[in-house]
Hints:
Layout: H1 3-24, E1 28-32, E2 50-54, H2 62-65, H3 75-85
Antiparallel strand pairs: 1-2
Helix pairs in contact: 1-3
Amino acid sequence: MGEAETAELGAFTKHAMTALRTSSGAQGFNIGMNQGDVAGAGIAAHLHQHVVPRWGGDTNFMPIVGHTKVLPQLLGETRKLLAEAWPVP
């Protein structure tokens, strides 16, 4: 990944954090990515990043590991809230 792509990914990460703070009141984030087969990436040449919102007193990684919704919400609702909160450059 070149410098321009790295900067673009960083900007999108900031946008995602802003939208999540605005739409859900997130107090912190876990941010990570898997690169390569041995790291768990399903497609070796593919790059994506996870931005997981966190709150004081939340239940750690339940939604990721235990497939449990701590804050039940329809995916369409979540998408609408994030789209409305996504910062326009």
